[in-house]
Amino acid sequence: KHGKELMLASKIIRIELKYARVCAQKKSPFSNSSNMRECVDVRKGCCESDLTNEGVRVRKEEEDEEDERGRRRRRKESLRKKMRERLRANKQEILNTQKKQSQLVCEKIVKMKEFESARVVCAYVALEKLFEVDVSSIITMALESDKEVYVPIVDDKNSNCRFLRIRDLDRDVARRTMGIMEPTEIDWRTNERREDLQKSEGRKVDIVICPGLAFDKACNRLGRGGGYYDKFMSSSVTRDSLKIGVCFDDQIVSNDDDDDDDDALIPLDPWDVVLDRIVAPSYSFFRKNCNQSQ
């Protein structure tokens, strides 16, 4: 928006210069009313013509931008549909191996030097029916290592959630909306509200571990459409965090799922956050070079 305003201002300045040149060509621009009227007519004509053209161009840009947003939205919905169908088709196999596959993912993360040195970790409590990787062993190890651990609680349908601190995975969370396990608002130890990460002055997150519906080799993430994690990972407390997406192998988008031949198969909107790493049982992808390791 600001860029368009600057372009319009620049156009007006050019019009003013054109007007000034016309006036300068007159021997005495305002020595008589005829010259004055001619300069005013030239100025008016230039303004009307150029501003009309500028308006047409700006509208065209806005229409093109809207069309592109529509294409991205349709591609995202198509990928969500394909991924849900794939997960449902492989449901029994995933459920039978979910614990083992989740453990493989967790082992990779806890061996990272970034995890060893981290002091503040954000994670989540997995919901089985959403085919989420169970990261409870990461949370437990973080707590045993005296790291601060925060998990999300959904506030509303406007992509707002808070990350509240927990000290015991078994006693500090409870089943809430849609059966999702979230931290209780009140800490049973003190009978006071839990520590809210976003309200903790100066607190910075070292690692964010987030779920998703699908991921690609370029570390792009496709969520379920709520925008909660993208909003949180765009905030000041996570600006320098290592952002890790975790998933099962079936959730990696391949070229079979999209006509594109690039690693970046998930379309991105301006508010989507690209992750630093993707960790699956059989794969690891890195944002910088997108190397794949088996």
SSE order and pairing:
Layout lengths: L1 H24 L7 H57 L1 H20 L2 H5 L2 E3 L13 H9 L3 E7 L6 E6 L6 E3 L5 E3 L2 E2 L4 E2 L13 E4 L3 E2 L5 E2 L5 H6 L8 E5 L30 E3 L4 E3 L8
Parallel strand pairs: 1-2, 1-8, 8-11, 11-12
Antiparallel strand pairs: 2-3, 4-5, 6-7, 9-10, 12-13
Helix pairs in contact: 1-2
Task: Please provide a written account of the structure.
- Helix content is 41%, strand content 15%.
- It is built from 6 helices and 13 strands.
- It has helices at residues 2-25, 33-89, 91-110, 113-117, 136-144, 228-233, and strands at 120-122, 148-154, 161-166, 173-175, 181-183, 186-187, 192-193, 207-210, 214-215, 221-222, 242-246, 277-279, 284-286.
- The strands form 4 sheets. A 7-stranded mixed β-sheet has the order 3-2-1-8-11-12-13. A two-stranded antiparallel sheet has the order 4-5.
- The radius of gyration is 27 Å and the shape is elongated.
- Residues 27-31 and 289-294 have low confidence and may be disordered.
Low-confidence stretches: 27-31, 289-294
In percent, how helical is the residue content?
Answer: 40-55%
Q: Main sheet, how many strands, which sense, barrel?
A: 7 strands, mixed
- List SSEs in N-to-C order: HHHHEHEEEEEEEEEHEEE
Using only C-alpha atoms, the radius of gyration works out to 27 Å
Tell me the strand percentage band: 15-25%
- Total strand count, please? 13
Mean pLDDT, to the nearest integer, reads 83
